[in-house]
Design brief:
Layout lengths: L2 H13 L20 H9 L6 H18 L3 E4 L5 H8 L4 E5 L2 H10 L4 E4 L11 E6 L10 H14 E12 L4 H7 L5 E7 L6 E11 L4 E10 L5 E9 L3 H10 L3 E6 L13 E7 L1
Parallel strand pairs: 1-2, 1-4, 2-3, 4-5
Antiparallel strand pairs: 5-11, 6-7, 7-8, 8-9, 10-11
Bound molecules: S-adenosylmethionine.
S-adenosylmethionine binds next to α4.
């Protein structure tokens, strides 16, 4: 960020509301975050995931694909961040997502991947896969047991007998995760150029977490530098705890082959930031 932008951003953030309560009464919708053009720019410039971690993430998935072979299916592929990287390595990849605006961007970026608009709770593709991947917390979109089990049933139907199903979900049981999930203050999320050339967008976020429902609500606040108007979008996610996820996989017919705690494939242990679960039928 250049100095001028840094100063402007700091000023804008200072003026932003600092808690969820103070934001009540603002417009809430979910249009910007899952607009593929915004989504790519938000995450290219995101503050919460350092570039080194992004590289490790891709390497992790590439390694899984090399071990299992193709075809590979990515659930909730978005604009193709991961699917495209795997296809560029010569792997046959299919990506499914329910948001048309995300797939529009994905299709612009690559014709190597087979892009399908579908719901991960009820997809039906005439093909079986050697590897099905569920990257970076997308499992959080399955907010009920019914939704999760419908998705698992579809995965089972589309997995080759010796195929693997790999999930990446945050471990909500660490001190750090709990602090982040419960942080109601306004924190910087991303600063990016508006895709329609309207200026620089500053995105901040605040979180709240309901431990009994395991529901995580994240509010994203979008503001063009120099303008008063602010758009608020609220995302609602269902988090999965380690023993719960292991049990759900087991009782839905999967065997956990390995569970890692990071993209570097460290064993899953107390304090691990992630749950990377490799399972088979
Ligand atoms: C966090 S994005 C992840 C995108 C991509 N995997 C990545 O790593 O950049 C989550 C995606 O899940 C998609 N999604 C949410 N619920 C879905 C559902 N029921 N079926 C298919 N896609 C869904 C959203 O449209 C969004 O593109």
């Amino acid at each position: 960020m250049n100095r001028e932008l840094e100063t402007q951003t700091a000023l804008t953030i200072e003026k932003l509301p600092i808690s969820l309560e103070e934001n009540s009464g603002k417009t809430v919708n979910t249009v910007i975050h899952y607009d593929g053009r915004h989504y790519d720019l938000i995450y290219e410039n995101v503050y919460i995931m350092p570039p080194e971690l992004k590289k490790q993430e891709i390497l992790f998935w590439y390694d899984q694909a090399i071990q299992c072979g193709d075809p590979v299916l990515e659930l909730c592929c978005g604009t193709g961040r991961i699917a495209i990287k795997l296809a560029e390595k010569g792997l046959q990849v299919t990506g499914i997502d329910s948001a048309q605006s995300m797939l529009v961007e994905a299709r612009k970026k690559s014709t190597q991947v087979e892009w399908l608009e579908a719901d991960v709770r009820k997809f039906n593709i005439d093909k079986k896969f050697s590897l099905i991947i569920f990257p970076i917390n997308s499992i959080w979109h399955l907010s009920s047991l019914e939704a999760l089990e419908s998705c698992f049933a579809c995965v089972k139907k589309h997995l080759k007998p010796d195929g693997k199903f790999v999930i990446d979900a945050l471990n909500p049981c660490t001190q750090e995760s709990i602090e982040i999930l419960c942080d109601r203050r306004s924190n910087l999320y991303s600063v990016y150029p508006d895709p329609d050339g309207k200026g620089t967008v500053v995105v901040t976020y605040s979180n709240e977490f309901d431990f009994t429902q395991q529901i995580y609500k994240q509010k994203l606040f979008f503001k063009l530098i120099g303008q008063e108007k602010e758009t608020v979008e609220e995302m609602t996610y269902r988090l999965y705890f380690p023993q719960e996820l292991d049990a759900l996989l087991k009782y839905n017919g999967f065997t956990i082959e390995s569970k890692f705690g990071s993209y570097a494939r460290t064993p899953f242990a107390s304090g691990s930031p992630q749950q990377l679960i490799v399972c088979r039928l």
